[in-house]
Amino acid sequence: MKSLIVATLIALLLTKDALAEDAAYTPPAGSAERQAIMDVMRLDFYAGDAEAAHRNPKKVLFKVSFLKVHGDWACTNVDPVDSSSKQIAEPRWALLRRKSGRWEDVKYFDALRPFESDEAAENALDMNAATIRKVCAVFPDAPADIFPKTER
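The chain above was modelled as a monomer; its predicted structure follows.
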């Protein structure tokens, strides 16, 4: 009887873990996964040098206002700041994909080009409902639950 209870508990725990991986989540601050995603976001400040972005000698920090991961996809919005929390660049959205264990920015903005107007391009910098619809059309494998909830 005891072994049946133990086996049932183990099965329930394994099922819980499998279900947790099947939904969007926010990696906790300080986790290796969140660090890897922020290293990719920091590449803009290090001319694409991944090693420098990880070491971060310029001390580029981010106020993370949105971050969701589901499987090998992530969507984030960060505000680049210095160590005194002073904004050092415009806030930015990114869509990331993990390939061979490494996160990379899929450059959703470039993938949406051409834009019908400057205003449309400006709007695409934000993850509003229209942008999310376009991004999902271009990247159909990206899970819908990594994007912010908007009026669709």
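The helical segments are 2-20, 32-42, 50-55, 108-111, 118-124, 129-138.
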